[in-house]
Structure formats: C-alpha cells, structure tokens
Amino acid sequence: MNITTFSKEQLAGQRVMAGFDGTDLNNDLKFLIDTLKIGGIILFTRNLSGPDQIKELCQSVQEYARIRGQPPLFIAIDQEGGQVARLKEPFTQFPGNPKMKDEADAVHFAKVTAAELTELGVNMNMAPVMDVAPEGVQSIMAERVFGHTPERVSALGTKVIRHLQNNRVMAVAKHFPGIGRTTSDSHNDMPFLNADMAALESFDLLPFEAAIKQAVAGIMLSHIFYNKIDPKWPASLSPRIAKKLLRNMMGFAGIVITDDLDMGAIKKHYDIRTVIQQILSADIDITLICHKGPNIEIAFEEILKGITDTQEIKTRGEASVRRILKLKEKYL
User: Fold this and answer.
1) Rounded to a whole number, what is the distance in angstroms from the first to the last CA of the chain?
2) 10-residue mean pLDDT series, the chain (332 residues)
3) Rounded to the nearest 5 degrees, what angle is found at the Cα of 202, between the Cα atoms of 164 and 254?
4) CA-based nearest residue to 175, from 207, 136, 213
5) Is the previous residue joined to 148 through a cis bond, with omega within 30 degrees of 0?
6) How far apart are CA 189 and CA 148, in angstroms?
7) Domains plus CATH for the chain?
8) 285 close to 264: Cβ distance less than 8 angstroms
C-alpha cells in the first residue's frame, strides 16, 4: 500500500470509521466503501445475527473493498466482556473486567476473544478499558473497569492488549486520558472532570503509559471536558490532550481514535463541521461515527476539504494515513 498513489478522497476516507444498518453488504455499505472510501467499520448488535452471518459480512466487505481498489478495512467491535459485549451466545460470555481475579483471567479472556474474533474476520477490539475507578466514587465506569488502582488496571489491561495483539486482533485502549472519576454519562451529555495534570499523571494516565509500552495499536479519546487541561475543548477535540499530551509528551505512535461522535456530549454542543476541524488540528487519526446519517458524509467532505485547502493539514493527514496503513500492513 503506497500512500503516494492515494487520491485525496482515499486519504480522507481512511480517517473515517463508520457504523451502519443491516446485516449484509447492502447499498449503504457499498456507498461507504466505494464513494466515501472509509478506512473502517464498527459492528453493533444491530449488525449481528449469528456466526455464519457475521463471517459472511466481514468477508464480503473486505472483498468489496479489494475489488474497488481500497486497502483492507478495520473491522471493529466493542467486546470488553460483561456489561459491554456485542457478541452474545453462542460466543463465549465473560462476567466482565471487575470480576477478573488475576492476570490469568485476563489472558484467558484475551485469547478466547481473539480466537472468536479472528474466526469471524473482526480485526480490532475497542478494548481494554484502561480507566481507573477510585474507591468511594460513584464512577460511571464501575461495572467496566479492572479495578480501583492504576497498578491493577495496568497489570490486567496490558495482559489483554498483549494476548489480543499476539493473536492478530488490534487492541484499542480507552478512554484517554481516563474517565474513571466521572459520575455522569457522555452518551447523554458532556461530563466535566476538575482534575489537574498532577492528579492525572499520578493516577489516570498510568495505565495508558503501560498500554503504550505494550505497543497498543490504538487509543480512544474520551468526550470528557478536563477543564484544567484544556479550558475550551473536550479530550476528543483537544489538541492539548491528543497532540501535546498523548503524542508529544507520552510518545504514542499508534492510531488515535475519537469516541463515537454521535454521543450527546458532542452532538449537543458542536456541529459536525466544527468537530472535524478540531480533529484535524489535533492530529487525531480516526473519526468514529457509529450511526447511519448525514454526519458520516459531512465528516468525509470536511476532511477532504481540510487536506485540499491547507498544505499543513494535508501533510499531517498523510502522517495519519501512514500510521493507519502501518497497522493494516502488520495485522491485515
């Protein structure tokens, strides 16, 4: 995959990961792959009816991308186990991160999950959750975290990363720079976290540092407003958090992904064009839009406009696509 042969449309589309309706390679999916040239799709329960159907869906979208001259697609899913698990029975059901007793449980989860995902053709898991929920806080993440201390979250989370990725499934650590202290849900509206950099560095960031050392493929940004770090933008739209903190200070060289831009935390406060402009200025690699609708096409058009109008954004955008293609060449 030689980036110098990519059209501007391909450069823009690689930076979009989209959800869709339906359980097969329908016209909506063909439009996303052929016209918007998207780099990836994400699967939800609405797209899944059984092992044979899921495998056929994954094979058909990859084959369609190939015959249309596109790179292989990221095919992602949220399969954390427990509260957030898109694959239901007959797939293995796990009690969830809080119920893990030790590192052996984490290894078992990752190996079994990776085997089931690769058999289907799913190549990216939006896991593990690397948030830390402190004791005594009514954390929104209480039922999804590995534990109450950065040490435990780091130990179990890195085991999941290692054994997913050793078994050909890209791991995405989330939700940077940490949402374990928050008590409100970004699906509904934007939570605020009044923690300064010293508080983050001594607690929330430690598992993400461990994930970076473990060469995690991707890191997902939260939609939380860390007002003492960036007084203007939530993490998912923040150059201070995505570029300065994660890239420059922490040295992360993998792909950076937003959380779903359809969530209330973003949709209630910003229009999609402003959102994309911020994403481009923050060197965020992948925009995640999980529901069918005009925002997917508008996002593509806004990315295309950015790389067409501005040489600096085009150059930085090419660096993003190189990061994406490096992962695709390694795993796909």
Assistant:
1) 12
2) 89 98 97 98 97 98 97 98 96 97 98 98 98 91 95 98 98 96 73 88 97 98 94 95 97 97 85 95 96 95 91 88 97 94
3) 35
4) 207
5) no
6) 25
7) 3-331 (3.20.20.300)
8) no
